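We modelled the chain as a single entity of 386 amino acids. Its sequence is:
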Amino acid sequence: MTTMVSLISEQTVPNILAIWHFQPERLLFVSTEKMEREQKVRDILATVNCRLKKTYKIGENTQSIIVLEDSLLQCLRKLEEWIQGKEDERFIINLTGGTKLMSIAVFEFFKNYESKMIYIPINKNEYISPFPIRSPKQPKPLADRLTVDEYLRAYGLVMVNPDKVKRCIESANRLKEVTYWMADHYPALSDLMACFGQQLRDKRDKKSFSCVMDYNVKNQEESAFFERFHFRKDGNTYSKPLTKDEIGYLTGGWLEDYCFHCVAALQGKGVDDVVLNINIRNAQGRENEFDIIFTAGNALYTIECKSLEQYHDKKFDVLYKIGALQREFGLRVQSFLVTTSSQIIDKATGQIMPHIQERAEQFQTQIIGLDHLMDLKTILEKRLSR
């Protein structure tokens, strides 16, 4: 019988990766009252079980002991009680989580048994076997990679709209060619898209809308746009009955689709999974919406898209929204803000305004403006290769 001993803390992913890799017969979680209230063991098991054929269940092949995080003696006594009758088993000890005192107690206890000690360094998908000290071994890779859904489960979050996510991805794939065309020609289309934004912004929740627009076409790109989207032309009047999806696309959905395609193009080249227009619910029942979420190397990334001028957002407080959303996740969340808005640019220098750049750095957010929109895939590649 092989038992894996895992120390529980805020970061659940190292425990999940170790269980997936070794697939022990039994699990022992060393937890605290705080971690129990936050149901970290539940989240670990929910994530582990969604991939493995074997199922770990509390009371069958899974147990927990609750210790005082600052008491070595109490932790040792709890382990002594637990191990009765199991002394001859084999143990794998994951020292990654818990508090320092918990880690010391677990090490001190299990060093006297047949134990394999492992440690998973932060930001690395590998484990170290630190003992025996005088004969160190090379780190060994952990091959498993979390999907977006698995990462969310690991932190007690639930994707509430999987069917919509699937439909949005299918729609994005159908419109891929026109989406790239719009991104490539956006400077010539910006005035037209602003007009659509003004007319359609408050129509996003409608199932349909008969769009009628009097508009003087300024360039070939605008004329091509109306042709591509099959608007009816009568002099300078353009009209078309729009579906809800089309309204969403013309008021910013095209930028979300473009960003999604840039990320999807990197799947298998650093990106492990990507979803579009996802709604997430946390343990308290609050829901948040993300434009794009993707996983890469067992870390989570988000992309927020803003295609129109944010005249109601003079301080560009969309960055505070990103910060608020990040707090729902683990510590490794990193974000991008992709925007075609000119409000972020200091006209005198041509650079992102200092107060906006400072706020972005505060929330670990990289801003990508219109000048670099077509370089997004390359920017993502560089960021993921760090």
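As a brief sanity check on the tokenised model: Residues 244-264 form the longest helix (21 residues). The chain has a mean pLDDT of 91.
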